[in-house]
Amino acid sequence: MGKVSKLCVASVMLACLSVATIITLWTIALTGADAGDETAPWNRYRLPAQLLPESYNITLWPRLRPHPLTGLYVFTGNSTVTFECVTETDLLLLHSNKLNYTELEDTHIARITHSGGGVLSIRSSWLQPQTQYLVLQLNSKLRAGQTYQLYTEFTGELADDLVGFYRTEYEEQGARKIVAATQMHPTHARKTFPCFDEPALKAVFYITLIHPSGTVALSNGLEQEVHSTTLDGEGVTVTTFEPTKRMSTYLLAFVVCDYANISTNQGDTLIRIWARRTAIDQGQGDYALKVTGPILDFLQSYYNITYPLNKSDQIALPDFFFGAMENWGLVTYRETKLLYHPETSSIRDQEATATIIAHELAHMVT
After folding, report:
1. What share of the chain is helix, strand, coil (3-state, %, to 5)?
2. Averaged pLDDT of the chain
3. Is 360 in the active site?
4. What is the H or E stretch that residue 6 is in?
């Protein structure tokens, strides 16, 4: 009886070991060689220190109508990140979350080129969902001190989850309108484009937005060029923005909407308040516009630091995760935090609006 029990236990243990081995082999096959290795760089939550981003050149096209077959709102885009290799490596890790990539001509989902010309050969590429990485293994090593470019094409969902590049909606004069907005803080830029999504890894961002004709596009930088064209049989507007200052990914922002604005100038700084057209018509942005300039002047004087940008956009969104977010040059607010109705809002509301504007603008000069 004892021998039979030992044999049964041994059989069960052998069966469990076999199942575990099969699962491990399938994990490796689906996610890449050594993906199940807990010590591998792609299974760690912090990026290795071999690469430093210099700039991103990003083009995004949010669709403000659902796809006729899937019913999903999506955006498409492409990105070229220029980075410097600090120490030799044959491994590239960039953050990526919930993005679907287009296979390029070599069947891989990215293309790597040297700044001096020439395409590098990729041995394997895969996505690591748990740690939210795009993983690229090369056939040769990147050289320390050299600059490279990584190009990708991708599609993401313009979901109503209030993070990354998301959508929100409102009704105006009986019409349902869609707004595409962003919330990158703390780690949601990776849901919009592949990037080195850690605050210390700052870079310059060159942003281009493709959007429906009749809508306006905003970003951290001032609009540099706006022109109309036709893409895929659809009339669209293409807006290119001035490059940003060197900054973290979590401060990047852009909005596509059918909003109106009021504006003024405080010295050399353009100040604009953006909101629903009816809200602007009712004067709900007037108070924010009135106090923003004096607040900026006070902060610059108090901290003895000059506001570093040529414009300050502030926009009221129907749905927003936080009360506000200090995106450099394009501060996003929940509507109730920025707008003040001269007939129905209270003095307490007025105080709250001034306080939160001061709080967000203080981030710009400290």
Report:
1. 20, 40, 35
2. 91
3. yes
4. helix 2-31
- Bridge partners for 251 per DSSP: none
Please give the angle made by the CA atoms of 318, 182 and 111, to the nearest 5 degrees.
155
List, run by run, the mean pLDDT of 10-residue segments along the chain (366 residues): 45 48 39 63 97 98 95 98 98 98 91 94 96 98 98 98 97 96 98 98 98 98 98 96 98 98 97 98 98 97 96 96 95 97 94 98 91
Q: Is residue 359 annotated as involved in ligand binding?
A: yes
From residue 119, how far is each of 112, 116, 137, 144 by CA, in Å? 6, 10, 14, 17
User: For the chain, first and last CA: distance in Å?
Assistant: 77
Q: Is 363 annotated as a binding residue?
A: yes
- Give me the residue label for tokens 């669209």: 236
* pTM summary value: 0.89
Domains and their CATH numbers in the chain: 42-256 (2.60.40.1730), 259-364 (1.10.390.10)
**How many helices (H) and strands (E) in the chain?**
5, 20
Nearest residue to 271 via CA among 235, 217, 312, 306: 312
